[in-house]
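Milestone M4 deliverable, item 7.
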Amino acid sequence: MRSVVPRAYYQSVTQGVEPVDLLRLIGSAAQDYDSMDELEQVLLPADGLHPLAAQLVAPILAFAADPKTRLPDQLLMLVRELAAHPDGEPVHQQLRAFTVTLRSLSDLDDHSVVEESTALLGWCGPDPQLSAVLLARAREYADDYRRVTPLVTAAQLDPAAAAGWLPEFLDPSRSSTVRVAAVLAMREAGLAPTASAATALAAGWSADPDALRWTTRRGRLADLVEYAAGGDPGRDAELLTTIARDGQAQARRDVAQTLADRAAAQRLPVALQALLCSFLDDPEERVRRCAYRAVVADDTLTRRQADWLADAVARGARMRRSALDALIRVGDPRWRAHAEDALRQGWTPPRLPGALAELPPPDGSLREAVLGRVVALATTIDVNRSPKATAKEQRELVGLLRVLGAAADPAVVGTLARHLAQMTWPARLWVAEFLAEAGRGNPEVLDAIGAMANGEVIYLRLLWLAGGDDAPLRAAIAVAPRRDVLAAVAAAEVFGDADPDVAARLREIRDSDADLKDRFAAAGALWELTGDPAEAAATVREALDAPWLRTRQRARELADQLGLEHA
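Output delivered:
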């Protein structure tokens, strides 16, 4: 009996595009860049390779070979990306059936088409005869960059023969570009690395770091060094050190990036740590920047260069913010000497508020600097600007309010109260919450919060918590919609269990189809009101997987209080 695959399942594994529509899309992509982008997104989704990718090689190559096609090189490039995918083995197998088509394309006058089709031929082997043809072509080209792809593909198609002729291209008499190409060819052909390959890579990349950047057959320095070193840490370090010493600016940056990537994945040997850190004083800015990003991201490197980073902060270097943040991260006490300047000048590192909160309450000029920064942030944060920048400012503000909370005095409270009306949303609310706790009973606080309440439960509740009259809050609760969670939670705080309708109102919200944040808030208020864990347990478990970090954190706190197990 023939099995029937549900349509929904079929569409889920084909990105919802029927085969006939894919063929139409390929036809459109042959003529139009927008359709080409769409085709690439369908065949190369973020979660893997399209299940029909191998079967589509035939129609894609058919369009690429059609003289009427406007974008043959783009189609060939797409096939190369499909073949290069980690799951691209079925594509490799399909390509073997199209050697004739690809050879014809490699003989055209269009350079891009020749490059792409020649690269694809590398998956069509073994083929000693074709290898010889491509090797002859590589010898004939006057442009060294054009030699790279046929040279590498020739080696792939006949590795045994390549082992005999590749040493010729590694010779110092050859151009830097060709020597690097020969190392790549050895790797792609699966040949064992040799001492001459390592020498050719070091000299070639030092002189021409762009050797593989203008060709279809590209390769990263990191991968070629790993190949040429053959697993020998000493040879690896020697190669990178040689390129760093002899190479032009781009070559040095490539070494710095290679070391930075390694440092992010594992601890570097001491010799390579020293090499990476040496780039901090490189004459080329982009080399320095690459090394610097690695140093401030890694604890070991930060500690190694702590003096350098402290000096950079002291001299007011452009990267002083991240340098100071790195010093805070590793616990270097020198950060304290620059905390006040950072706050006054507005370049607060992300970790500074938390670090200050762990110290005794600030006093004197440091407290004034914290207070001034809070006022500056709270009166200028603009949620209509960049969300990323705004989020950073908001986190800083909340953190600095915690610092002030440990040292709040009438002067601090009075200053914030006087600026409250000029503060922007949501900073105004956070400062009002701070004032309600730190300035309870303070007339300036009561006047400031009362002036902006305007009948809103959220501010009237704070006014009541600050010691103000509860009559305005009661009146606002009475007219608020029944499912207004702010009003319901405030009612629980004001009336407690004296009014049985409060619990009923909270249960309605908890059991409704409202936003999880609202239902979680209602559940938490119910537990505080009744003391019964069953009132909140189910909603708390749901909130443990909420998409919002603060909600998940609060849910974990509440789960601990309720005695619920959680990860």
